[in-house]
Amino acid sequence: MLIGVAFEVENKYSNYLKRIFASIDMSAYYWEIVSDQILYEENGKTEQGLFNACINEEVEKSSQFEPNIDKHTKESVYNKGVFIDGKSFANAIERDSYYFIFSDLKAYSNKKKWGNIETYEDFIDSYCEMIFLCVDSMFIEIYCKDERILQIIYDNCKKNNFNSIKYLVDSEAKQKSLIAF
Fold first, then answer.
1. What are the backbone dihedrals phi and psi of residue 17, each rounded to the nearest 5 degrees, phi first?
2. What are the pLDDT tens digits along the chain (181 aa)?
3. Which pTM was predicted?
4. Comparing C-alpha atoms, which of 156, 163, 152 is closest to residue 2?
5. How far is Cα 146 from Cα 14, in angstroms, rounded to an integer?
């Protein structure tokens, strides 16, 4: 069974998330931002945390998605995890350019119970629909329970000339960790 796509992107600033998820309705999901070590330029300054503005908004909205983060924390949420809505996620990835370091993003189709997903079995047994992992700025793996969406992602990778594109099957996924680091 197909369960994921693995590929490499160039180690440079780009709008990779926008290109990877083109033609997929990102607003249909609630996104857990487990690790957001993504750099971007704003007002001539390099900032870290592509989703920080969205996260701070959600924290201020009285924890609408019950994030597992201290409500008083305004710093980046590396390894703490917080939910943002799909519209906020879609708006954040529209930026013209950003740079991956590490990223661990998990998509849920509803606000049902979520938890730590570290293995393939955790993923299969969860309400999580999709996992996006980026390691060392360029190695990306996406796991998804919907093969139609996997096909769209695979086609987007081909169209954008990403490197070393391959499908992952469940037997491969069972041997991998599903966390960025």
1. -60, -40
2. 889 999 999 999 999 999 999 999 998 999 999 889 999 998 889 999 998 877 766 655 544 444 444 333 334 333 456 888 899 999 999 998 999 999 999 999 876 666 788 889 999 988 899 999 999 999 999 999 999 999 999 999 999 999 999 999 988 877 777 776 6
3. 0.85
4. 152
5. 26
